[in-house]
Design goal:
Helix 3 crosses helix 4 and helix 4 packs across helix 6. The chain starts with a helix and ends with a helix. It has a two-stranded antiparallel ribbon. By secondary structure, it is mostly helical. It has eight helices and two strands; from the N terminus they run αααααβααβα. The longest helix has 30 residues. The protein has one domain.
């Protein structure tokens, strides 16, 4: 048994071991999704969020007030701002995880988020990517513009979660 193999079996390696090399090599040559496809998928997802948000907030407030039909439902209270962030993160994180890299918008447009380190996107990666949208929007959306400046067309949220976005339609063809 080699020294490197022995070190991997112990709890703490003594030298750097690239954890994602094999996975990254298996993804070599996959067709990357275009910026236009990613933007279209994001817009479709935002419409889905808007359609789902209002009924969900009505239900939450109705349940919070003991199902009393006489209490007016307020969508502009203190809970409103926090609920927006929570709802967006849950939508993008959970749908990406449950859809194995595809939200409703990504499914319609024909693109998929793929993990650089795991065969299937993990729950934590999907939540990191959902939270990473906020980081991509900082400084006037410069994190999204980085799509055009990085070698594998990764925005900030992709680099945070160690993912890439590929064209699903070209993969099937």
């Amino acid at each position: 048994m080699s020294l490197a193999a022995t070190e991997r079996k112990t709890s703490a390696p003594r030298s750097y071991a690239p954890h994602a090399t094999e996975r990254m090599e298996s993804l070599a040559g996959l067709p990357l999704a275009s910026f236009k496809a990613g933007a279209a998928a994001f817009l479709v997802d935002m419409v889905a969020v808007l359609i789902a948000y209002i009924p969900a907030m009505f239900l939450i407030q109705w349940l919070a007030h003991g199902r009393d039909s006489n209490i007016p439902i307020d969508l502009h209270g203190d809970f409103h701002e926090l609920s927006n962030v929570i709802f967006l993160v849950l939508y993008f994180g959970l749908t990406l995880f449950w859809g194995n890299g595809r939200t409703l918008g990504k499914r319609i447009v024909g693109i998929r988020v793929v993990s650089l380190v795991h065969k299937r996107i993990t729950f934590w990666q999907s939540m990191e990517r959902a939270l990473g949208y906020g980081a991509s929007m900082l400084e006037g959306g410069f994190g999204l513009v980085q799509y055009f400046t990085t070698p594998n067309r990764c925005c900030v949220h992709d680099r945070i979660a160690e993912t890439i976005v590929v064209s699903d339609r070209k993969l099937r063809a």
